[in-house]
């Protein structure tokens, strides 16, 4: 009997809120020519600084976002733009 081979889904896996953060970071970078500061993300999503920081750490841990520790505005989305959701203003 042949062995069943299941291919892994090529789509990145993230929850809706994570997708919105990724989409915001990507779109901000495209518009302004540089990544957003954490304060920009905080203002857009109307959340506290610790909330933004924790989300960035989670996205980085899951391999969806990269940054240079200690360097301002170093966020870089690691998934293709076509896989990002449409950004919705909260």
Automatic annotation (TrEMBL):
Task: Please name the GO terms that the record assigns under molecular function.
Answer: DNA binding
Q: Domain HTH dtxR-type: where?
A: 16-65
Q: Which domain of life is it from?
A: Bacteria
InterPro entries associated with the record:
HTH_DTXR, WH-like_DNA-bd_sf, WH_DNA-bd_sf
Q: Which Pfam families match?
A: Fe_dep_repress
Indicate the secretion signal residues.
none
What this protein is called in its record is MarR family transcriptional regulator
Query: What species does this protein belong to?
Result: Adonisia turfae CCMR0081
